[in-house]
Each structure stands twice: as C-alpha cells, then as structure tokens.
Amino acid sequence: MTPTRAARPVKGGRRRSRRRADMPLLGGVRPPIALLCVLVLALAGLTAQVLGPAGEQAVPEAVLSSQQHFAEDGAIALRASIDERVTDLNRTAAALNAGTPVKPERVLSDLGKTYQKWTGTTVLDLESGKVLAARGETIPLGWLDKDALTGDTALKPRMVRLETGDVRLMTMAVLGSEDRPQQLLIASNSLSVPAINLGQFRSMAVVATGGEILATAGFEQSEALNTDQERKELAFLQKQMSGLSAQAARETEQDPVSAREPGSRGYPGVSGTLVGGSYKGRVTTAGYASLSSSDPEEKKSVGAGLGLTVVALLPVIQQQAAGPDRELYGLLAAGALVVLGLLAAAVLWATVQRPLLRLFLESRRLARGDLTRPVDVPRWGEAARIGSALERLRVQLGGPADDPGGRQRVKGRFGVRGPLALTAVLLLLWCVPVGLLLNRTDDSVSIPASMVADQRDRTDLVADRVRRALNEAQADLVSTSRLIDPGDADAGRALLEETLREHTRYQALYLLDEDGEVVARAGEEPRAPFADADELPLVRVAGKGGKKPVVQAGAPLPGDKGTTLVGEVRVEFLNSLLKRPGLGEVRVVDSKAETIAASDGFLAFEELPRDALADLVRAGSVHVGAGPVENGLLIREGRGTTVAAAAPFSGGGVAADLGWTVVSWQNAKDFQITPYQREDRSVLAGLLGLALIVVCLGWVHLVVARPMRALAAGAEKLADGDLKSVLYPRYQDEVGAVVRSLELLRQQLQARKQTQARRLAEPQAGVRGR
C-alpha cells in the first residue's frame, strides 16, 4: 500500500527516526569518506608546518645532540676514573691486611709504583693521629672528624678544598686488623676533566652541586691571547660557562626517570643540552651530564654519589633561518594535497556513497509496498546490478512492467573497485612525489665542521677509555702478583679465583713458569699460552685465525724470576667500552688496521670495510711532533656522506705502545641536520599519505565494496527466482539496510507465490467435490 499525501507531512519526524533505525549514522561508506577528509586536512596542516621553516632552530639539533653525547662521554670517563681509584685503594688495603704487616713507607712506595693516579698519599696512626708516612702533595687533616671515621658515612670518599682553592677527592681505607695497630690510608686525587683533546674551541668543566665549578679545561689555551678582542671573547665564554654550569647543576637535580623523555634510552643519568648567548654570530651551546652508575640496578657508584656534573661548552656558528620561499614551498605542497584529497573524496561520494544511498531508499520503498514507480537504477557497477534486480523484483511483485525504467541485467563486473583505484591514484599523485622526490639530498649537503670535530674528539675520548682500561688491567695484575707465593699453588689458585670474581674484565687468569707451563689458573682454559714466558710483553694480542682475538696482559712475579701472572681480557669488555650513542660504528684495530674489538658484530682480525678508513688509521699513526694524533675525515661517495675519525693510543701506560687505534664512522644522514631533516619529513609525509590510503580505502573496501558484490549476487539470484536462500545483513549500515529490504521482498514474493498456489488449488477441490 502506497503512503498517502496526508501521511507525508510527518517526514520531518517519523520518517527521519525510521531512517536512523534502519541505517545507523556510524556505519557504511560515510565514516571512511569523512575520515579521509579529516586526515587529508590534518596531513596538509602537518605538511605546511614540517616542510616549511617553522620550528627551525638557530643551532642544528645534531650539534646540540653531539654536545650532549660529549658531556655524557666525559661524565662516564670521570665516573669510571673515580670508581677505579676507590676500588684500587680498597683492594690494595684488603690485600695488605690479608698478608704480613708492611711498613707504611713500603705501602706508599708500592702503591705509587703500581698506580700513578693519586696526587698525594698518607698513612697515619688511628689511635694517636700521627702521620707515619706521606708522599706527593700534602694532605690536610682538618676535615677528619668523628663522622668521617664512624657511623653510616664512615670511610666514605669526600671532597675537600685545599688552601690553594683546589678541590680534592679524599679516599680512605683502614690498614691492619684487630690483633695489630690500625692505620688509616688516605689518598687524594683531583677532580679534573679527563685528559683528552677538547679541540680548538671547546671547553669542559666539572661542576658540583649548587653550580660551583671545580675544574675546567680548554680556557687555559686562550689565556695567553694578546688582543683585546680575543680577551673579550674569552671573558664572554667564561661567563657563559659559569651561567650554564649553574643551570646544568639545577637540571641534574631531577630524577633521571622523570627527566628523560618517554621511551628514550641510553645514558642512565640526567643529561641534556643548553643554549646560551651569542657573540659575533656564534651561539654558545652546552651539553651536560650528571655522573651516574653504569648499572644502577646492580651496583652503586662512588663517583655517582658525589653529585658532580660535567658540562661541555662549544660556540658554533648560528644557522641562518630559511627564507619565505621555503614557507611558500610547504604551503604549495599542502594545497596540492587538499585539492587532490577533496577530489578523491568527491569521487567516492559521487560513485559510491550517492548510488548506495539511492539503492537504500529504493529498496526501502519497495519493501513498504510502493510498486507504482520504477526503480531508479544506477548506471554501472554493483549498484547497477542491484538496481536492475530491484526493478525485476518490483515487476514480480505486481508493479507495471511496461515502464521505461526497466532495464536489462547489467553484466559489468568491475564495480566499486574502479572508484577506489581512481581515488588511490589521485592520492598517490601526491604521496609518491613528496616521499621520493621532494627535498632529496646528495653528497653536496654541507656538514657542520663541528660535527667532524666532535666525531674526532669523541673517538679520542673512547680511545683514552680503552687505553686506560688496559693499563688498569695490567696494573691490577701487578698488584695481585705481589701477593702470590710461588711455592704455595693452592693459595695462588685461591687468590686467582678471588681476583677473577672481583674483576669482570678477565676471562682467565693463570700463572706461567719459566718454561711456559700453566702452574695455576682460574676461569677458562688459556687460549694462547706462551711457549716462553720471557717473551711475554706487558700487553699483547694473539689468537689470529681463531673466532676471537685474545688480549693478554702480564705481570712478572717479584722475587721469582721466570714466573708470570697472565690475564686474558674479555673482548666483550672492550666492546662495551666502544658502544656510545651518536658515534656510529666504532672499532679497535691494530697497526695493520685489523679489527680487535667493535661496538657491533665483527670477525676476528677482519679488515675495515673501506679503504679510506684504513688510510685514515695509517695517517693517524704517523708521529707528528710528540706522537700520533687523532684525525677526522669527511668521506663523500656517490650520494652518501660519511663522517669518520681515527684516534691512536697516546699518553702513558703500557698500552700506549701497542700501536692500536680506535676508528669510528657513521652516515651523515643520521645527523639531525636541516636538509636531512627535511628529507626525512618528506618521506614521513609520503608514508603518512600511504597510510591514509590504506586505512580509508581499505575501510571502504571491507565494509562497502565486498558486501556490495555479495549483495549484487544475492539480489540477482533472488530476481532469478531463488526464494529459499535467506538474506542476512552482516553490517548495520547502508548495505545491511538494503539486505534487510531484499529479505522482506523475498518473504513477500514467497507469500505471493503461496497465495497464488492456494488460489489455483481451491477451484480444483470444488469440482472434485461435486
């Protein structure tokens, strides 16, 4: 029954409520099209912002990050130096307490020969307070009080200011036992900046809690300047160091977890960057890092508990801001995306949404019994197939058949996939050029000179750490060798096992006699024992041809000629010293440029991957003046640029004569430099556009295209006379509403067929009864 005109004025109320009940607003094709428009506008706004000059800093982010990493490296070196000094003093005291009593003068003499790291040492009697022996600079004793020797803070290292104004770290250990007089061993050492090459313009400071500067390095090279202009610049930098150090001290008082950005890893302490004032076109940048334990969960660090902060300061040339053409550049890219996105949305609206809504209205009209008007059949695709089937069903239900609206069955099978493909092509016309062609870089990108200098200086700092670690390993063996009794093998083995537990840097410790035979050992089997112990250098590398290099350190036993204590240093220990963020791949190579240790995986004694790196190692090993020097290099090959550096071992200790070099390199694209950042942003914008295509068009395909194909097949089967197959709606949307209407039409056709069958059967029954 067709609704009368009297009932139609209700369309503002009842009709709308029925439409909402039949077809929820959150279903169907309208949400993905709306989401497509929203995402296109959002991506356009993001594109205008990130591809334009908005947010560009006066200093490249790469330079700031490099200063932060430099400060972290300095803090790690200073913390390790403090911890090693405290550990060495405590271990020496424990060894002396376990052996026969030694005179105080002998204690300080052996301590000075083994470890050249203290500025002054003193032994005093705890009962009388009398100084029994002293070496080096005079250690004041006015700071010694009850709190320093008793209670929870007993024997804790503390910082003491000398009469000269310098600050020293005082470390204490008790000598003697309960059955003999106890003595107090005190060692002082300066809290100086690690002895590394800071470059021509960088300066570094060690800062205490409250912002007090305890030590600086880098300014003394400029104190001999003659011109007033240079002195003004030096005064400006010193003032900047004072202000930034105070600010860094306040920043490092934060909790490391809350100070770190969510999801970031790396340095366990508090670190960051600061930007100071500018002077003649150069901006003062600083990186800061608090001293933190390398593994806070497993052990506490003495250096980390002193509240110290390392600040690295470097003036850099101010980056020129991008011109207005760059802003217009981003706006044009955003405008092109808006035009193509809206055009794609219009295609979906005209070819998918509008025909589907028309089918919904037509199917609902037929289901309500309005069969007078022909079905408005769409022109192509699944919508045309469904519309043609609806028209055939209208005729089968009793509608007039001689109507020009009736059409033949549509055989086109491409359907909704065509508009989806066209929409994807329209959006790809923006995504592909932006992601693959826009802001592309090559080897002509200008790399700040400070980045090459930072790579060189940080590599030198790593080389210093590795050299000091090997020197410490050999010094520990010297200290242990003085406690070994060659005639007591069991006691020697027990001492080796205890030493191996204390030092994780070793994988094996063993004693070699004059014939090269292993007398006692602890840990793993010796992998490269010597045939003749007399040939053993203090530090050497062996194991060529094996899976791992074997780094060995040795110390002859005093008073027993021919017997040598050998320790094999774990390669993993050396590898851990090389892993630093922002430095790329780092390796330790010998004089032949063959790999001994690396921050990443490596093959034993493999060559460097590039000839330029091997040439850089050989150039750094050439003695210039006092010795070999570190070098930095910018390697441009094809479209890529690599920043590399090599730092040979230099300085004191037995490891300085090894001829080893630390070499590092990294791709310049890893730097946060403006051209590379723009290229990354362009690629990101293209990828976001691809994600937009996948999400929105995939949504349309899943909830509209595939159900419409199934609906078209079901409608044609129903129009062909299949009244047994029940049609179930899968979604509560436009397609689901059409399916429900078709199911109602199927039920009406089935009832009509049953009625016609009854009418045909009734006259025949009457004739038989007569």
TrEMBL record:
PROSITE patterns: HAMP. It comes from the Bacteria. One of its GO terms (cellular component) is membrane. The chain crosses the membrane at residues 328-352, 419-438, 683-704. Residues 350-402, 702-754 form the HAMP domain. GO terms for biological process: signal transduction. Keywords: Membrane, Transmembrane, Transmembrane helix. Residues 1-22, 245-271 are annotated as: Disordered. This is HAMP domain-containing protein.
